[in-house]
Structure formats: structure tokens, C-alpha cells
Amino acid sequence: MTKILIDTCVWFDLAKSNKGEKVLSLLEEFIKTKEVSLILPEIVITEFNRNKERVVKAASKSLSSHFDVVRGMVLKHGGDEYRDTFLSQLNDLSFKVPTIGESAFESIQRIENMFSESEVIEVTDDIKLRAIQRAIDKIAPFHLSKNSTGDAIIIESYKDFKERNISQDVRLMFVTHNKSDFSIRHGNQKEPHEDLSELFDSSDSQYFINLPEALNAVNSDLAEEIEFENDWHNEPRGITEMMEMDRELSEKIWYNRHQYAAQQIRNGEIKIIDREDFDPQKPDNNYIKDIWEGAKKSAKAVEDKYGKENLVWDDFEWGMLNGKLSAIRWVVGEEWDELYT
Q1: Does 283 lie in the same domain as 197?
Q2: Is residue 39 classed as helix, strand or coil in its secondary structure?
């Protein structure tokens, strides 16, 4: 028997997308045929219940945003011959947006049904203490200078279950989409972080960042029987999702540049001056006072939005942020290396 612990973020991703419905069907079939069973930390249930309504609303809102973008592009660039027909069909689809929200709601109900049949892992005081110790030692998932208590409790719940069942003939799998907290930092993200490698040290305890891939590893024949191969390919990102990520990356990169400027000010490399003292011939050697005050307010807004602890990166991570923004800008039609913020 294979027992799988699925991270909260995976459940939410399954609830939000059409592809998720197909993966849920795949998982339900594996559970029905007793190929797998689920192990479920109490904290996953808590996190899921706390956020499930937000996921349903987000599913409908995301699709509405896509329709708005497409409608605008058709009005601006569409030919007269087909424009009215296309807009009419698009409007018909817009009326179905509530149905999309209902689909997410149905997915959540299916997930909760699976929860009810799962083996719940009680979050004991020992699990909590071990999670806190990870924070003290600054080891994964606390290696990114942010509050990862929930993630630590989930991975410690997995560890606790593994230790309690070490003498049993049980194969364990841990599935997450949270690669930043659980995957190796500078390498193949399908591999667990170095601090977690001892948990996934054999074929009896494996790490996955893709649920269909995990199920395929359990029984590839069954996966093929229910047309798993047809759902293997990733769906392209929508323009709305890409622009939202562009905005997030721009804000984070701007914040990092702002912090560097603040350090230069503290070191005396840049001076704060009044507007009347500004010299356009030396713009890089000073900041106008009222502009700098506005920048500090903007930086505080970014900290409030993302959490100050989540705005600290090493050189590799800083390079990845810039690379991601450059790639998105290129995909939407700009040139490479367009990193303005």
C-alpha cells in the first residue's frame, strides 16, 4: 500500500483549474482501487477550511478577468467580419462564469470527501516542538527568512508518520507545489531540499512536486487506463496570470533596489537634498527629499503586502527574480532584459 501526504497548496491548485478536475478523478480512482490511501495532517484540514471560500471566488474572478482582456483585444484589433459574432459568443460564455465557480465548489466537495476517508495525523506537542526547532536552526522550510511554521508542521507530521510506521510494509510519498520551501535550492526542483533529504532516502519514502507523476509511479498501467497520458501536458498561462506575476515581480525587484539605495544613503554614498538644491547634472548622487519620502511609503506598502520577511533573497534568488521578469516581458512582446520597475 502507498500512503500519500498531499500539501495544502496542491489541494487548492486542484480546486482552481479545469485540469485539476481530471487529476482529482485520477486520484479518486487510485483510492477506489486501493492503490493509494491518504494521510492528512490536522493542519492541512485547518488551512483548507480557512481558505476554501476564497478559492471559489478567485476561480470565477480569474476567468472574468480573462474575458475582459479578450473582449478588449477583439474590440481593438478584431476584423469587422467576425467581431460581432465572436463578441456574442464571448458574452454567452461570460454568463457561464458562475458555473465555473460552482465547478470549483464541486471540486472542494470532492476533496473534502477524500479528507473524510483519510488517515488523520494528529499534530502533537512533539511535532510542534520539532517544527519550532527547525526555525531555531534555520533549516528548511525556514531557510528563506520567512514564517514557515505551517510548512514545518506538515513536514514534521510526515516525519512522525514515517517513524511510527517504519516497521510496516508501507510506501510513503510527499507531494507539494511549494518548491521554494521544500525543493533543493540550486538544482533539480524535483529533488527535496538538502535539509530534508534524510526523509526521502529510499523508494519507500519519495518526494514529488507533481501529483500525476506520483500516481504514475505507483501504477503506470492504471494511470494509462484512465487516459492519464492525455492530461500530462501543462496548460499555457493566460495573459492575466502573466501580467499579475509581472506586477508582483516588479514590486519585489523595485523594493530590492530601494533597499540598496537606502543602504547607500546610510553609507553616505547618496545624499538627501531639498528640491531647490537638485543638480540635474548629478542625478545619481542624490535623492530629492520629498521623492525619497514617497519611496519609503511605497516600500512600506510592499512590506505590508508581501511581509518583510518574504522580501529577502540571496544572490541566486535575486538573479532568478530578474530572470523571471525578463522572461514574462519577452513573452508578452517586449525585448529581453526589460527590467524597468
Answers
A1: no
A2: strand
